[in-house]
Amino acid sequence: MVIVMADSLADKKLGTYTVKEIKSACNKLYNLGIVPGARITVISNDRGPIIVRVGNCKLAMGRGMARSIIVE
Amino acid sequence: MSKNQKIVGLTGQPNVGKTTLFNALTGMSQRIGNWPGVTVEKKEGILKYKDTEFNIVDLPGIYSLKSDSLDQKIARDFIIENEDSILVDVIDTNNINRNLYLTLQLIELGRSPIVCLNFIDEVEKHDVKLDEKKLSEKLGGLPVIKTSARYKIGIEDLKEAIYNYKPISCEIKYSELLENAIEKIVDKLDEYLTNIDEKFKKVPKRYLALSFLEGDPEVVELFKKNGELLSHANRIKEEIEREIKHDVESYVVEQRYKKADEILKGIWTESIVYDDIDKILLHPIYGFVIFAFIMYILYSFVIGVGDIFIEYIEMFFEYLGGYVGGIVPEPYTGVVVDGIIGGVGGVLVFFPYIAFMMLSLAILEDCGYLSRVTALFHKMMAKIGLSGGSTIPIMVSFGCAVPGLMATRSISDPMKRLITILVAPLAPCAARFVVIGFMATAFFSQYANLFALSILLISLSLMGIIAYLISKFIVKGKPEEPIFELPPYRLPDWNYILKRTWAYSKSFLKRAGTIILAGSILFYYLLNYPNPDNSYGMMLGKMLESITLLMGIDWRGALALIFGIIAKELVVSTLEIAYNGNIVGALTPLKAFVLTLVTVVYIPCLATVATLHYETNNLKWTLFAVGYNLALATTLGIVAYNIGRLLGFS
Ligand SMILES: Nc1nc2c(ncn2[C@@H]2O[C@H](COP(=O)(O)OP(=O)(O)OP(=O)(O)O)[C@@H](O)[C@H]2O)c(=O)[nH]1
Ligand SMILES: [Mg+2]
Question: Mutate which of B486, B489, B490 to test chain A, going by most A C-beta atoms within 10 A?
Fold first, then answer.
């Protein structure tokens, strides 16, 4: 079996990633354009909410939410 | 509405400028703001262009047409029911790929919207080019117009496009796999679909098939009513799921986004504008420091600038009272000078505060900072049973609880929304600031700021405690995973801000001229008939006195509180009248403090109670809200008064 380097968004440093999978299907994420294949940029993953950018739209999300987004 | 008046529906995702566009087309000034979910109810206005009148309808922003949230269902029903309407699909061009998602769904629904590329000013500032002719081609010939609603660019083009609008048929195809599945379902639709709601007779069959696959609750419900159709469609759904190895719901979503990217390929390049300031503004420590600082500036501005004007207004009313007292015939001097000028003047004096407060709130709303406050406060709000989304309704309630309660509609969790509705009216609104300001200047001249601040802090802590208790014991919900949009910071639209402030101010003045005036006159007569020493008002007040005396408030104060239910400013007017303008001699600072506190907390005004009922749609919760406010205010008043006495005040 091949192990793919995929983690949740919550553990990622600043940089741009591609969404692999969304664990808890959530309409809110779909609405904001977070679907498998979408590019997502982490702007801040420090204290407080994680700030990301999808397309030209900035989003702040809690860690629980970020954990359900698997990226590579 | 005349028969041949055409309906034009403005649809689009939240915060794309629909209402700004609506205002530009109709000349009205409906509420806008730089956060998603400002408009919660559809608004209508008239556009006259050449020889035709159009009925423009501003709809609440929606991300998609899926019927899984109430606002999206309402918007979809509007679109289905008004099948002859002209749709304008407003798009934030900065986020065009996400916005096209909704455009694609409109096309699926058999509509051919006018595509309005808004925010073109921002896009062109970043030197991004977008070929609208090519976009129109790729969208099957839909008219595409570039506009900037704020800077009034392209508005005439849009009017012309609306005027010349002819529906066209256009279809956009997705992957072969999906199209095959749709086709197979559609094939059997005529045969199997026997039990169909009137509404769905108007939509294309392809749309029903696709919506079923997407798991649209209403359409799934429809299929369930037709057993054979359901099992047929489920078979096809399983087939396709075996192929793609995950659920078909998200597959449909992915397909639409893919299509949007495909359409944009070669005609649009994304430019990313970076700013890092949110890292600090959302920081759990610096973020709050900055918030406190901004609030402080705002407060100083409102009070500082307001004070300059207030002095003159006070002088004016004093002069007016003296002058009118001299010319009005004897039997009427009482009601005119003490009743009308005292009562209405006592409220009008605070007009500058109110106007500057509304101005500041409108600026905060329009620049984009409020969305940061939402994210910043989420953790704290979650601890007391609310959510970050409760922040904006509460901030808006500082202006007026009525729009504040309406703003709760953007809170997705119904339990959190209910709790927010129940506690938001505790925020001291502009009318209550009139009372706070009045008492502050009358009794606490030196410590006015301290007094106002302590009332504010007490009411905010109460809000937190009550929310916590309600969420713990009465309305239990589960914690929610938050995700917030942070729209770009924008310079406020000064033109709009001034208009909006003026509209608010006008309604304040109107209240002073109607409710407050009528209330003052009524109150004057209640106090002086049959005679001043044994009036109806006295009898009414005495009935409550047994309770209010426990907090040091005599029958006059009790009567003022009854009037305050109609509009809280009336507490000031009535006290002015009841004590003949000499309230300082009649109350002690402690009593003034208690009375202010009770006024701020007890039953919100009638308009708020009505809104509360409308928004919860539940009599029980409305009565609960009124009841707990009343109980809370009574307890608080008694406790505060007695503590004050123990501390040696009188
Ligand atoms: N620069 C610029 N700003 C705009 C334009 N159109 C709207 N805005 C601003 O964008 C923000 C959102 O505008 P609204 O009209 O409230 O948006 P909406 O689509 O009605 O939003 P919801 O009612 O929340 O769905 C406001 O701050 C407007 O001033 C535009 O063309 N250019
Ligand atoms: Mg709007």
Answer: B486
